[in-house]
Amino acid sequence: AVLAGIALGSRLASRRDPTERRAFLLLCVLAVWLPASSSLLGLLAPLAERAFPPQSVAGALLGRFAPAFLLILPASTASGALFPTLAGLYGPRVSRSGRNVGRASAANTLGAVAGCVLTTFLMLPLLGSRLAFFTLTVMLAIALVVLSGPPLRRRLLVALAAICIGLAVSLMARSGPRLRADQRLLFLSESPAGNVTVVQNRNAPSELVIDVGGSQASTTTPEGCLKNRLMAYYPMLLHEHPSRVAVICFGTGITAGTASLFPSAERLDCIEINRAVIEASGLFAAHNHDVLGHPGTSLIIEDGRNHLLGSEAEYDVITEEPMHPALAGVVSLYTREYYELGRDALSEGGLMTQWIPLYCMSVEDCRMVARTFIEVFPGSSLWLLGRDAMLVGSKGEPPDPLSVIEALSDSAISADLRAFGLDDPALLLSCHLMGPSQLADYAAGAPVITDDMPVLEHTAPAAVYVPGTVAANIGEMLQFRSPPPGAAALPGFDDAWTAVGLFYLAEASRDTMNLMIEANLLQQAVETCPRFLMARARLCASLHQSARILLESGESGMAWTALLSAVEVWPADPHALTDLAAMLNAQGRFDEAYRASGRALELEPGGVAALRARGRAALGMGLRDEAERALTTADRLWVD
Fold first, then answer.
1. Which residues contact 180 (CB under 8 A, 6 or more apart)?
2. Hey, is 206 helix, strand or coil?
3. What is this structure's pTM?
4. Is the Cα dihedral 303, 307, 309, 314 positive or negative?
5. Nearest to 237 by CA among 117, 32, 404
6. What is the 3-state secondary structure of 421-468?
7. How confident is the model at residue 383, as a pLDDT?
8. How far is CA 506 from CA 156, 516, 525, 609, in A?
9. What mean pLDDT is reported for the chain?
10. I need a labelling partner for 606 at 20 to 30 A (CA). Which of 69, 212, 438, 451 fits?
11. Where are the beta strands (DSSP E) in 9-123?
């Protein structure tokens, strides 16, 4: 849009004689259109998404490109016409035209460079994008007034300047990202490294989502926390004495916080490129064990690769909490050269990990990541739970997977795994999917990702809109599933191994929306290994989802049965309890609704939907004062 507009503007300007009036009009177009276009973008983007649903890469790109192109084109056309117009005004005399045009060109180039440098390195970091834009708009409006000629023109330009400032102020006062009604914005920071937001679920206040650069980075749902914790647990449990640890991509700090639980962790370097992420980390202190207050924690604001390249530090464990590789630039943390930097920074026997998301990644993409990793760490293993796989590689001999047994015996270390039943060594070891030989067979023939050939950066985005990637990846990986050597002798391992295998199949069914098959498989997993609490929680979620679908389709009787089964399987799900309370209220069973909503509020204090269910139940029981308190609180929290 920029280049097309400059070409179009230059062409249009070449057809007319340059005048001061035309130059001022072009400046006016820029002064008005710049703030107006940014305001319009917020209105056109949702319309473009509806017109071009992001069901493919082409559709997603078109939906984003079309409004941006249409809004940038007028400003770039005016810019393209402005330079030849000014050049014509300042170079009419043949004897001095070359000198004048050269000066105009030099001033234009220097201004463009200065604008880029000052905006990127000074205004955006200090002011944020909105205030920086407001400042630039005010500067342009002042320039128009100063450069105006006769009094009438001056007055007109002053009025125009006021309009520009008004538009900029309205833009600056506009709210943050678009949110659902049940979401609350807790944090917003704009920076050159990417805007960072933290959003809270009003119905489950403990559930936070951090968004970096427009993409969800992490969440504090139970399973979201578990994924990030396992990024630390796998290498920390496998290493015999992890005292020096590096966590690249701090994110929520949950991975780093889990590493801090290990008594042996004397030094914990947290590397994060975006300072705003660190500013938001206080909101996650309850989930990351307040890791920034840990005596061994050292915070490093730096690119992860640059840190490994420029630091002389040596680590026993290098792990990370990265973004999805389909996002621009993230592939640099998935290349052979990156793994080589990590290997060089490890002590002998040190461990490095790599996260592989099975969602929005084709089978070929996952095999490519594994192939690249074992190119540097041939003695690697692959662990899997749900839709998140983890590669663990070692510098030297691979660790014995059974070493996790001793570390799990420390209740302080394993506490965060207890809610899922994974503090049981047999269950955790059942998440071991492949050893070195199986991993080599799985990845055989896949290309290696390098800095010069970052193939994944081009193939991963294509899989974002492809359905069923989790099911396809699980199906491929299960062909190579092999238990750790010696694990079969552990008490209860056979049951745990079978239950985790059923969980994998249920995950694949969930990905293809076969909820009935998913529930049946999870039921078998629970019956096979009752201590596998994560299977219970997932079964509850599956039944709850089925109940909502049935209720929307008018099958209230079947929905009621499914919801009762969900709460019976896992009575610690606040969402299921809240919906149960709502249905009990609808049936006039206010005493039971009162108890169900009370239990939901114990699990999620301040949940708006649970408060409303509580208020309605209390009203039905004649507890008017309590009903008023609950409903008033719910209304206040909903609009807060």
1. none
2. strand
3. 0.86
4. negative
5. 404
6. CCCCHHHHHCCEEECHHHHHHHHCCCCCCCCCCCHHHHHHHHHCCCCC
7. 97
8. 69, 10, 9, 29
9. 87
10. 212
11. none
Write down the residue that tokens 């301040």 correspond to: 606
Residue 617 C-alpha from the chain's centroid: 38
Of 76, 71, 88, the closest CA to residue 15 belongs to 88
608: three-class secondary structure by DSSP: helix
Contact by Cβ (8 Å): 515, 546: yes
Please, what's the b/e burial string for 238-273 (b: 16 or more CB within 10 A of its CB; e: otherwise)?
Answer: bbeebbbbbbbbbbbbbbbbbbbbbeebeebbbbbb
Residue 35 pLDDT: 64
Q: How does DSSP assign 321-355, residue by residue?
A: -PPPTTSTTGGGGSSHHHHHHHHHTEEEEEEEEEE
CA distance 264 to 375: 30
Q: Which residues contact 468 (CB under 8 A, 6 or more apart)?
A: 511, 512
Q: What is the per-residue DSSP string for 250-293? A: -TTSHHHHHHTTSTT--EEEEEES-HHHHHHGGGGTTTTTTGGG
Rounded to whole angstroms, the Cα distance separating 569 from 542 reads 11
Give the pair of three-digit tokens for residue 406: 């001793």
Tokens of 508: 């694949």
Give the closest residue to 392 by CA, choosing from 326, 484, 500, 474.
Answer: 484
CB 239 within 8 Å of CB 262: no
In three-state secondary structure terms, 2 is: helix
> What's the token pair of residue 635?
């209304």
CB–CB of 367/382 below 8 Å?
Answer: no
For the cut 80, the answer to whether the pLDDT of residue 356 exceeds it is yes
Comparing C-alpha atoms, which of 609, 610, 592 is closest to residue 601?
A: 610
Measured CA to CA, the distance from residue 296 to residue 313 in angstroms comes to 14
DSSP one-letter code for 122:
I
Does the structure show a pLDDT above 70 at 92?
Answer: no
Local structure of residue 475 (DSSP, 8 states): H
Counting every residue written for the chain, the total comes to: 640
How confident is the model at residue 32, as a pLDDT? 67
Kindly state the DSSP code that residue 202 receives in the 8-state scheme.
Answer: T
CA pair distance 614, 314, nearest whole angstrom: 55
Burial call 312-340: b when 16+ CB within 10 Å, e when fewer:
eeebbbbbbbbbbbbbeebbbbbbbbbbe
pLDDT of 172 higher than 60 = no
Q: How far is CA 9 from CA 5, 70, 123, 615, in A?
A: 6, 15, 29, 63
For residue 415, give both structure tokens.
Answer: 């506490």
Q: Measuring CA to CA, how many Å separate 349 from each of 129, 240, 370, 379, 536?
A: 46, 9, 20, 11, 37
Place of tokens 């990905």: 511
d(CA 454, CA 78): 38
Q: Tokens for 202, please give them.
A: 């009003």
> What's phi and psi for 637, nearest 5 deg?
-70, -25
Three-state secondary-structure class, residue 298:
strand
Give the residue among 187, 186, 183, 188 at the shortest CA–CA distance from 204. Answer: 183
Give the SS3 label for residue 596. helix
pLDDT at site 174: 53
Handedness of CA 558, 559, 560, 562 (dihedral sign): positive
Structure confidence by residue, pLDDT tens digits, 566-622:
999 999 999 999 999 999 999 999 999 999 999 999 999 999 999 999 999 999 999
* Residue 52 tokens, joined: 């071009």
Burial 118-145 (b: 16+ CB within 10 A, else e): ebeeebbbebbbbebbbbbbeebbeebe
Q: What is the pLDDT of residue 95?
A: 53
The residues that bridge with 270 in the sheet, in sequence order, are 247, 299
- Residue 601 structure tokens: 């509020």
